[in-house]
Q: What sequence folds into this?
RNA sequence: GCCGAAGUGGCGGAAUGGCAGACGCGGCGGUCUCAAACACCGCUGAGGGCAACCUCGUAUGGGUUCGAAUCCCAUCUUCGGCACCA
């Protein structure tokens, strides 16, 4: 019969009983309400991209938000006044489509989703200031979209224009990003997207093209800057004026302007091409060519953009039966219309230089047009071209170029443009790929554009006092490709604010990217009447110190937000050029199918089950531990148990220092050869080295290695648990530091253990989250001795233990004295001995005897 | 085609000029238990050797260096973005 020594069983770590309790406590105490008027502490505006209220918070949201929350908590522990708001990007197509499908109002659908998501967001234990919440579908928010629009209209930054837009036969106008895939289909119904000519509202963002290329002062990821730079697409070159030649049917002398990045190749222009939309096409077409040209232009208009733009497609085009005169040599060259030239870029017309442009080459080959080489590397002048020569070779020169022959390409181009400029026939020019922002949408669930069309007065802005133009709730929003608001007579018909006569409202709504172009300013004063922003708060709190969100918004939201800030600046609303000082893009969690997680794909992972099983702290920690935050990757819950075990160990270490491990015979004893004093020193060194590393990792958002370091420290503590060291001051400090370091990442368990420690010590209760981040004792991170690897010819052959403050001479002597080194040297004399990193490593170099 | 990111054990990943594989998962062995679960301990890149150890090894091929996963050149692969932008 065995006698069992009964110890009270350690209470199990049970997140379900801890987490909701602390969430309620924090909430009640208002721990995370930010006093925006506090002038004493340094301010830190931390912004994370607000979610679209699709209905459920999935694991992807957690991946974005919980590390951001850890950053907020880390900064608070440094005494900063942190503002971390949240809101909902509540307008947009999915609400409208879901509403149509389920036959409910988009507003009801959206608002009930928001209620649900608010509840789910709280289970993360995130420190959002809910008082600052913004919901963009609220009239109190979108009225300011309208107000901004009217300001921009007044300032000439908004204008209306008829132009071809992407149009889905089922869903109407689509945003650029809602057209997917190489075949340009509608993201929702898969139908092929067409072009339609519609009168649309635009914001004049191209005005900022150059300014947008300037990222100085912004701490943004390089890939995002590169993507925006590409999107803006600045190219430098020249604009050259060709005149049309006179003929039987045409008087001649009309100006045809072309943009080219290669003015040096002007002598190689053997024909010209106009885009089908070019205004001079009809005028220049010879009567006998008219039928064919008209047919071609008509066909080009109905063709989808991708068909036109596909590089695989054969070049097509027809001759107009008219000629242009090359301004540099007076040569007559034929004019074609072809859809490989785009109406919306440059001047919509090109000089074609087949010898030095692939597209022109293909066209010239097909239609038997002359190909004249005007740039050649030395010795290549007479060689026949088999394809367009684009490369820039050393020593290449202009050939067949009149008086410019012999010049280098760069200087030749400049000389040609300079000569033309003197005659008023050319100039240096810059063109951008960036277009003005088309903001009109033929959808219901968005901000009504606040203008009125009067038969007498034309376009009349809605007066300020009549804002907001409310979105009617009762509209038949079911999609039929037609504009829903146009079907609502009471919305549609108004009297003109100027003349009182009959007038109609604009029935388009705004692109929902407008909502997200200024929401962080509104967070500072969500209820403010009379102005969209509180100027004093905006001036003190913005630009945003740190923005976190997905890289998928690189050229949409993040570019719009910059443009909008510049427009606000130009109408005198803010005194800043850029909205976000520092940007971090976290990666994306993909579904098990490797695809982006989204409700419409049905591959979302619900965190609720994981939270129920492991608790929010484990889920938070696991998401941070998976890998580098900016990397993302496919979701797999494998391994979450390891993180949970870590928290269990922390629980055990804090609450039961003197316990023994049931399965470990060594438990409770110090390792062989280590006395208590040495063990206590080791513990203190481990704790402070961890603190140093963890602090740096938080600052760099390296959460995965931060957690790894905490695990290592916990493993050290676990080894000493139950030993004579366990109750020592060093043990106590290591435990205390562990909790403080873990607090931003796992707020609930650390709060619980902190409060238990305090009550055990008889201290007054206070939150760990109001504690100050501990300071590293640098002296404690230095060990008395260290191990130095010794290499012979770059291969590690031995490790020697030396005093930390060993001199270089002594270290070299010790390294050479190593038996293994001596054996390898076999009597040879070292050529040199290198010490790296201040004696962190020794490399002994000898001649290899072979 | 152009721009960008990345290739390291069975897996997620660590190390950004100085001990490759920290930390964790999985696997194997063990302790605890009547048993299971939980928990804990040990081992775990490949090949060789009884062993101390040795050899190889960070997509591929070259280079720079006393020393390269890390820097340079070329190539291959994967992912993201753009795509007839003159």
A:
């Amino acid at each position: 019969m065995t006698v069992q020594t009964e110890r009270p069983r350690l209470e199990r770590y049970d997140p379900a009983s801890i987490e909701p309790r602390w969430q309620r406590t924090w909430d009640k105490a208002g721990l995370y309400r930010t006093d925006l008027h506090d002038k004493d502490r340094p301010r830190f505006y931390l912004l994370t991209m607000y979610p679209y209220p699709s209905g459920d918070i999935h694991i992807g949201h957690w991946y974005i938000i919980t590390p951001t929350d850890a950053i907020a908590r880390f900064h608070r522990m440094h005494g900063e006044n942190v503002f971390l708001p949240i809101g909902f990007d509540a307008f947009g197509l999915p609400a409208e489509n879901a509403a149509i499908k389920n036959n409910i109002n988009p507003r009801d659908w959206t608002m009930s989703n928001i209620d649900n998501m608010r509840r789910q967001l709280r289970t993360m234990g995130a420190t959002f200031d809910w008082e600052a919440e913004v919901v963009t579908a609220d009239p109190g928010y979108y009225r300011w979209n309208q107000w901004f629009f009217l300001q921009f209209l007044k300032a000439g930054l908004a204008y209306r224009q008829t132009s071809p837009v992407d149009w889905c036969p089922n869903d109407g106008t689509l945003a650029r990003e809602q057209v997917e895939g190489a075949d340009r289909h509608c993201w929702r119904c898969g139908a092929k997207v067409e072009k339609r000519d519609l009168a649309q509202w635009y914001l004049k963002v191209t005005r900022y093209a150059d300014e947008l290329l300037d990222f100085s002062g912004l701490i943004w990821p390089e890939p995002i800057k590169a993507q925006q730079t590409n999107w803006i697409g600045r190219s430098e070159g020249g604009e050259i004026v060709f005149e049309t030649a006179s003929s039987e049917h045409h008087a001649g002398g009309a100006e045809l302007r072309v943009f080219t990045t290669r003015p040096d190749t002007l002598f190689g222009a053997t024909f010209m091409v106009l885009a089908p939309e070019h205004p001079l096409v009809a005028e220049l077409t010879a009567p006998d060519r008219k039928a064919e040209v008209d047919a071609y232009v008509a066909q080009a208009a109905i063709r989808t953009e991708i068909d036109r733009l596909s590089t695989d497609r054969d070049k097509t085009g027809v001759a107009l039966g008219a000629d242009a005169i090359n301004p540099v040599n007076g040569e007559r060259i034929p004019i074609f219309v072809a859809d490989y030239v785009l109406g919306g870029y440059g001047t919509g017309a090109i000089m074609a230089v087949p010898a030095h442009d692939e597209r022109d080459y293909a066209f010239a080959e097909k239609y038997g047009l002359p190909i004249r080489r005007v740039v050649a590397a030395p010795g290549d002048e007479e060689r026949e071209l088999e394809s367009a020569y684009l490369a820039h070779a050393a020593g290449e020169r202009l050939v067949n170029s009149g008086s410019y022959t012999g010049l280098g390409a760069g200087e030749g181009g400049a000389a040609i443009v300079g000569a033309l400029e003197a005659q008023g026939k050319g100039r240096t020019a810059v063109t951008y790929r960036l277009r003005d922002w088309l903001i009109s949408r033929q959808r219901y669930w968005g901000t009504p554009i606040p203008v009125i069309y009067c038969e007498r007065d034309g376009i009349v802005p809605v007066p300020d006092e009549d804002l907001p133009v409310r979105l009617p709730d009762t509209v038949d929003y079911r999609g039929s490709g037609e504009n829903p608001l146009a079907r609502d007579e009471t919305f549609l018909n108004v009297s003109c604010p100027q003349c009182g006569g009959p007038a109609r409202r604009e029935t388009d709504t705004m692109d929902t990217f407008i909502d997200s172009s200024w929401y962080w300013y509104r967070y500072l004063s969500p209820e403010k009447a009379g102005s969209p922003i509180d100027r004093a708060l905006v001036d003190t709190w913005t630009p945003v110190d740190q923005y976190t969100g997905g890289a998928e918004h690189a050229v949409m939201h993040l570019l719009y937000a910059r443009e909008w800030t510049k427009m606000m600046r130009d109408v005198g609303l803010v005194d800043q050029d850029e909205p976000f000082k520092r940007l971090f893009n976290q990666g994306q969690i993909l579904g098990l199918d490797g695809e982006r997680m989204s409700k419409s794909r049905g591959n979302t992972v619900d965190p609720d089950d994981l939270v129920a099983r492991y608790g929010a702290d484990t889920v938070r920690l696991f998401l941070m531990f998976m890998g580098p935050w900016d990397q993302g990757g496919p979701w797999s819950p494998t391994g979450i148990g390891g993180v949970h075990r870590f928290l269990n160990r922390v629980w055990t270490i804090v609450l039961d220092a003197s316990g023994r491990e049931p399965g470990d015979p060594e438990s409770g004893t110090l390792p062989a050869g280590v006395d208590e004093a040495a063990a206590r020193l080791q513990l203190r060194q481990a704790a402070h080295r961890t603190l140093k590393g963890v602090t740096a990792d938080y600052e760099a958002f390296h959460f995965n290695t931060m957690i790894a370091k905490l695990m290592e420290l916990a493993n050290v503590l676990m080894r000493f648990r139950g030993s004579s060291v366990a109750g020592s001051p060093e043990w106590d400090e290591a435990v205390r530091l562990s909790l403080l370091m873990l607090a931003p990442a796992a707020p609930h368990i650390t709060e619980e253990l902190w409060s238990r420690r305090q009550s055990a010590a008889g201290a007054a209760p206070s939150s760990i989250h109001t504690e100050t981040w501990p300071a590293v004792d640098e002296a404690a991170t230095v060990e008395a001795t260290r191990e130095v690897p010794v290499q012979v010819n770059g291969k590690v052959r031995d490790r020697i233990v030396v005093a930390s403050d060993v001199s270089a001479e002594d270290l070299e002597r010790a390294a050479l004295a190593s038996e293994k080194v001596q054996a390898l040297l076999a009597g040879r004399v070292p050529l040199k001995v290198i010490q790296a990193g201040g004696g962190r490593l020794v490399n002994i170099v000898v001649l290899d005897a072979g």
Summary: Residues 1-7 of chain A have pLDDT under 50 and may be disordered. The two ends of chain A are 70 Å apart (CA to CA). The CA atoms of residues 82 and 152 of chain A lie 32 Å apart. Chain A has 25 helices and 33 strands.
